[in-house]
Specification:
With 372 residues, the chain is of the alpha+beta class. The protein has 3 domains: 63 residues; 135 residues, Mog1/PsbP, alpha/beta/alpha sandwich (Protein Transport Mog1p, Chain A, 3-Layer(aba) Sandwich); 149 residues, Mog1/PsbP, alpha/beta/alpha sandwich (Protein Transport Mog1p, Chain A, 3-Layer(aba) Sandwich), CATH 3.40.1000. It contains 9 helices and 18 strands. The strands form 4 sheets. A 7-stranded antiparallel sheet has the order 11-12-13-17-16-15-14, with helices on both faces. Strands 3-4-8-7-6-5 form a 6-stranded antiparallel sheet, sandwiched between helices. Strand 3 and strand 4 form a beta hairpin.
């Protein structure tokens, strides 16, 4: 891993101290081994003073290890991104949490989340401050948080989540001319006082390496060929998004996402396997409306199709972008892969003749394949 020369000191120091950490672990192991041997010899020869001394040292080592684990931190990269965070060891990336829609860090019982999204700057022409405000409610407070990248606005609020649990949130948006990074911390209210400082400090430690190359398919079980001159990939939970690279201001920006929906997704899975075309279409239009800022969707064409050797359906649709009222066109496909369902969802403004973006999305669909 190569960090940019502008990287903050805490990352360089962390990497430079790896050998010191290894030495410390080695010393601890030697102490434990000596004490263990001392206990064995002491018990066999009835040297109770030696047994007591070695026992005390072992307990001391155990308590020191637990204390170190609870208070120490480490630099972690969020998979699929170039974002680094200096996080406590009790916050960690979890593949299971990602399958539940959380790309970032969680604690053991998921009462604390730190969701990380890294997007191309071209993904949204919306004003950054407005984007952050929309993530909070009317009771939000805004303050300046000193970070490794300089002062940024931190929006804090109290909400009731989808499960009826009161939570506290921290929202931040930052970045540079090439990337936009959104951090959303969520803490269940009963744990707020215990975790407030750790979450704020982790957000403040954010750093990204603009020179680092990341394989967009490193954390998913599929690949596609995509036109890098048209689309910039970015990580989404259990999948990959593709945003139009053009910096031209567009009310409707072309994008596509490919998602693995962990199974069994009974409604969609059964509809595809039983060739229930109407049920697939109903699911597709509901998904399109929920996953994008689109309304008044209608199908132009639905057909049974194979993608990467998997059976499924493809839907071509039209609709309206909610905010601007402008027309959009798109494609949706869903195919079966064992118990899982793979969903393809793309949209772009309609054009006279063929759209280069829609053609590129069709090529992605044709080149999709599961990793062996």
């Amino acid at each position: 891993m190569t960090l940019g020369r502008s990287g903050p000191g805490w990352i360089r120091e962390e990497l430079q101290e790896v050998s010191q950490e290894h030495l410390s672990v080695l010393v601890d192991l030697v102490v434990v081994a000596v004490c263990g041997f001392g206990l064995y010899v002491g018990i066999r020869k009835r040297r109770w003073t030696v047994v007591a001394l070695c026992g005390v040292l072992l307990v001391w080592e155990a308590l020191a290890a637990l204390s170190s684990f609870a208070t120490s931190s480490r630099v972690v990269r969020i998979p699929g991104t170039t974002v680094f965070l200096d996080a406590p060891r009790s916050l960690f990336y979890s593949k299971e949490a990602e399958e539940d829609g959380i790309l970032g860090l969680v604690n053991q019982d998921r009462s604390v989340l730190l969701v990380v999204t890294q997007l191309p700057q071209s993904f949204s022409p919306a004003d950054s401050d407005q984007f952050v405000k929309e993530m909070a409610d009317s009771s939000a407070t805004v303050e300046i948080l000193d970070t490794n990248q300089g002062p940024i606005r931190l929006v804090s609020s109290r909400k009731i989540n989808d499960h009826g649990v009161p939570v506290r949130t921290f929202s931040v948006i930052t970045g540079d001319p090439s990337t936009k990074i959104i951090l959303l911390g969520v803490v269940h209210e009963p744990r707020f006082e215990d975790w407030r400082g750790a979450v704020r400090n982790t957000i403040a430690s954010v750093f990204w390496d603009s020179t680092m190359e990341v394989d967009p398919f490193e954390r998913v079980d599929f690949t596609v060929d995509f036109d890098e001159t048209l689309f910039a990939p970015f990580a989404v939970p259990t999948g990959i998004g593709f945003s139009a690279r053009s910096t031209e201001a567009r009310p409707v920006r072309p994008f596509m996402q490919i998602l693995r929906i962990p199974g069994p997704v009974k409604e969609l899975h059964d509809s595809i396997s039983r060739d229930q075309q109407h049920s697939v279409l109903t699911f597709a239009l509901r998904f399109i409306t929920g996953a994008s800022n689109v309304t008044d969707t209608g199908a132009r064409d639905i057909q049974q199709t194979g993608v990467g050797g998997l059976n499924g359906y493809r839907v071509k649709w039209i609709g309206q972008e909610k905010d601007s009222g402008l027309p959009v066109e798109g494609m949706f496909a869903a195919v079966l892969g064992g118990d899982d369902v793979y969903v393809f969802h793309g949209m772009a403004p309609p054009t006279e003749g063929s759209s280069p973006f829609m053609e590129a999305m069709e090529r992605m669909l044709r080149t999709f394949k599961l990793k062996l």
